[in-house]
Structure formats: structure tokens, C-alpha cells
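# nightly structure sweep
# worker-07 picked up a monomer target from the shared queue
# config: single-sequence mode, recycle default, output format = C-alpha cells
# input follows
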Amino acid sequence: MTIASARHILVDTEEECIALKTRIDGGEDFGDVARSHSNCPSKAQGGDLGQFGPGMMVKEFDEVVFKADVNTLQGPVKTQFGYHLLEVTSRD
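# output follows
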């Protein structure tokens, strides 16, 4: 089974998600942005979700995490929880 590690930032609107992506692309630290803006409890770890396998996250999240290039910023990804920026940190 494939195992991935990822970190994410969860916000309420697509506009906020795009604005935060622009800041990270401009050089701001992903973890710092997650700690100050994410709605997910993972913000305490800079958005780190740890390791998980297929099916452990919502479908829209899985589709990105198990296909996107490692260490590239992805999003906005819309789920039932809101809008995510995500970065796959490893995948085996």
C-alpha cells in the first residue's frame, strides 16, 4: 500500500486560499502560514497531517495527495470542510 505524508492549510473561502497560496509562492513559510491561518487542529504542527494511506482522507484530498508531485504546493482543493492548500511531503 502507498503511504503518503502531507501538510495542509484549511480555510473557509477559495479567495483566502488563493491569497495564502500567493504568499507561500512568494516565499513565506508554509508552516508559519498554516499556524496563523488554518482552521484545522493540525495548524499547531504547521499543518502536518502525518502519514496516511489511500481512503483515510476525503476523496478530493486523496486524489491530489496520491497523484501530485512531492514537495509542490497544490490547491485550492475544495472538500466538505472548506478549501485546502496542500503539499505532499513524502510518498512511498
